[in-house]
Specification:
Chain A: It comes from Fodinicola feengrottensis. Chain A: Pfam families: Dioxygenase_C. The complex is a heterodimer of chains A (188) and B (241). Chain A is mainly beta and 188 residues long. Chain A has a domain at 17-60 and 86-105 and 118-176: Protocatechuate 3,4-Dioxygenase, subunit A, CATH 2.60.130.10. Chain A contains 1 helix and 12 strands; from the N terminus they run H-E-E-E-E-E-E-E-E-E-E-E-E. Chain A is globular. Chain B is mostly beta strands. Chain B is 4% helix and 24% strand. Chain B is globular, with a radius of gyration of 20 Å. Chain B has helices at residues 43-46, 196-200; strands at residues 37-38, 75-84, 94-99, 124-128, 134-140, 145-147, 153-155, 158-163, 172-177, 205-206, 217-220, 223-225. Chain B has 2 helices and 12 strands. Chain B has a single domain (55-224), classed as Sandwich (Protocatechuate 3,4-Dioxygenase, subunit A), CATH 2.60.130.10. The chains are: A mainly beta (188), B mainly beta (241). Chains A and B meet through helix 1, strand 2, strand 5, strand 7 and strand 8 of A and strand 1, helix 1, strand 3, strand 9 and helix 2 of B. The structure holds fe (iii) ion. The site of fe (iii) ion (FE) has 3 residues of chain B, from strand 8.
Chain lengths: 188, 241
């Protein structure tokens, strides 16, 4: 039995999330023109295979050196002067498409002494979802994926759902809430 | 080898509504059917963006002063603190808020039910908590509104809140409700929260002491995000396996 820590319960963003959240619609983790930066684009898709037009995708990641501008990082916070934000928010459009403009983060020291492969943490919310779901984006062809502690706990048949594939202007990462290709989601 | 010592955020999965809540019909195609994998809290999870200070304007927390004239409706103050479940305040964190107008209508292209729009009300606000986690909004009390979930379905009056907290683990979007709303009993979104105590935590309290005479009723509402365990995750650097 889990004890109740007394937190405030989650509720859905509802159908009108865009009025409250679109002001911060900003897909740029790094400024336009940043050398080596690329788009990660994808669809958000429901269990009927229909794109979700009233959803939101937010990402959070380390910088290319694997560092954060955050006081709880025991290695120290790295203050930003280069416009790197680590965060992006993309409201899905009428076709269910979202995208973030970013750079590949560095690898990270893991709790067990190992190494986390480069990844983005992803929050997905939408009308019809009573709480967020969380997933991670890894990068195809990155040798470090094999030893990643989180990716290795995912059923091998589903790991591909967490790996962004090369595309014209960066990477492709579709998010399936249900169905045969349901994305692997994490309890965080 | 050095172990990382990181804050570890308490899990509170049981507090939140199940993603699969059949009474809320639009959840049917939008919940993962396969089990979630437990994600240990590493550096990405215990950090998060510090948003708001640059973007939030001084009047963004006053929804009654965004237009030429004041909106129609009962002027209210919504105030409180953002805390974690250990009782620590969460300072300097962004809060976003959106709501329907006094007639229960959102300023959104897809809200088409025949209640009037108010030219003086957008229904959107934001603020950043102060050094003690406090926030304050001035707005008008939103109206209830119908929706098509079931026969004669009405959403209780509510304000949508979005919070970032200090870490990715603390991200929360919720709704604040008003005391003793007669519509609670038929609302599958409110009732999706399994524990009655959890439901109570989404309801603000009328606060006579903070009510401003001859100006505005005040409702107080504390928002509680996940706290961290008091003990570190890993202790001794030299105690390697
Ligand atoms: Fe609503």
């Amino acid at each position: 039995m889990m004890t109740d820590p007394g937190t405030t319960p989650s509720q859905t963003v509802g159908p009108f999330l865009s009025i409250g959240m679109e002001w911060l619609h900003d897909p740029y983790v790094v400024p336009k023109g940043t050398p080596g930066a690329f788009w990660i684009r994808g669809l958000l898709v429901d269990g009927a295979g229909t794109p979700v037009p009233d959803g939101i995708v937010e990402t959070w990641q380390a910088d290319p050196q694997g560092r954060f501008d955050h006081p709880d990082d025991p290695r120290g916070a790295v203050a930003r002067t280069d416009g790197f934000r680590g965060f992006a928010r993309s409201m899905t459009n009428a076709a269910g498409e979202w995208g973030v403009f970013t750079v590949r983060p560095g690898s990270l020291p893991a709790l067990d002494g190992g190494t986390e492969a480069p990844h983005l943490d992803v929050t997905v919310m939408a009308r019809g979802m009573l709480q967020r779901v969380v997933t991670r984006i890894y990068f195809a062809g990155d040798d470090r994926n094999a030893a990643d502690p989180a990716l290795s706990t995912v059923d091998p048949s589903r790991r591909a759902t967490l790996i962004a594939q090369p595309a014209d202007d960066g990477y492709r990462f579709d998010i399936y809430l249900q169905g045969d290709s349901e994305t692997a989601f994490f309890a965080v | 080898m050095t172990h990382l010592i990181l804050p570890r955020y308490v899990r509170d999965d049981g507090v939140h509504p199940p993603l699969n809540s059949p009474d809320y019909r639009s959840s049917a195609l939008r919940y993962p059917k396969k089990p979630l994998q437990l994600l240990p809290h590493g550096l990405t999870e215990i950090t998060g963006p510090a948003l708001g200070h640059q973007q939030v304007g001084e009047l963004d927390n006053d929804l009654t002063r965004q237009h030429e004239a004041e909106p129609i409706g009962q002027r209210i103050i919504v105030q409180g603190r953002v805390l974690d479940s250990d009782g620590r305040s969460v300072p300097d964190t962004l809060i976003e808020l959106w709501q329907a107008n006094a007639g229960g209508r959102y300023r959104h292209v897809r809200d088409t039910w025949p209640a009037p729009l108010d030219p003086n009300f957008t229904g959107v606000g934001r603020t950043v908590t102060d050094s003690e986690g406090r926030f304050r909004f001035v707005t008008i009390k939103p109206g209830a509104y119908p929706w098509k979930n079931h026969h004669n379905a009405w959403r209780p009056a509510h304000i949508h809140f979005s919070l970032f907290g200090r870490a990715f683990t603390q991200r929360l979007v919720t709704q604040m409700y008003f005391p003793e709303d007669p519509l609670f009993g038929q609302d599958p979104i409110f009732k999706s929260v399994p524990d009655p105590k959890g439901r109570q935590r989404m309801i603000c309290q009328f606060d006579l002491d903070s009510t401003e005479p001859e100006w505005a009723l005040t409702y107080t509402w504390d928002i509680v995000l996940r706290g961290t365990q008091a003990t570190p995750f890993e202790g001794d650097d030299n105690n390697d396996d």
